[in-house]
Specification:
173 residues, globular, 6 helices, five-stranded antiparallel β-sheet
Length: 173
Amino acid sequence: VTSMTSLDDVWKKRVKYELVNLKIAGTDDAKNKETLTKRYQSLKTQAAKFNNQDVFQILMDSFTEAIDPHTNYFNPRNAEVFNQEMARSLEGIGATLQLDNEVTKIVSIVPGSPAFKSKQLNAGDKIIAVAQGENGEFEDVIGWRIDNTVGKVKGPKGTTVRLKVIPMGQDLS
């Protein structure tokens, strides 16, 4: 693609393709417009969260993989996460999390985990704030990158983490 006009044309084709797929799925035009608007707002928000370390990670990982497919580059943050996972030095709550429209949502609870045993969390619940320790101050995590939220939730085995959660089906307001 060599010009802004060409780029605009590519985007128009992509949006049209996605709109056609939504129409094939049988939803009405107003719902399709809302779905695509949310989808692209989320994409824009996630792209804005990329920092120079993320870009360097992708570049170096591609470079090392081209030389040796079994070699990866880790930026300092990813190296720390990798080392923690290998050493099993930190433990989480035992839930699979994902970002959903700027809010961290619990996708599933791992059987036998602290979250499972507490019976206080359910799939679909939204985590809006995290506090470490019994008296730690809650920190709002809406709009955070998922890796930063996960980093706040994890801690050495036996430590306390408290979550402010909106149960599935309830609005943020």
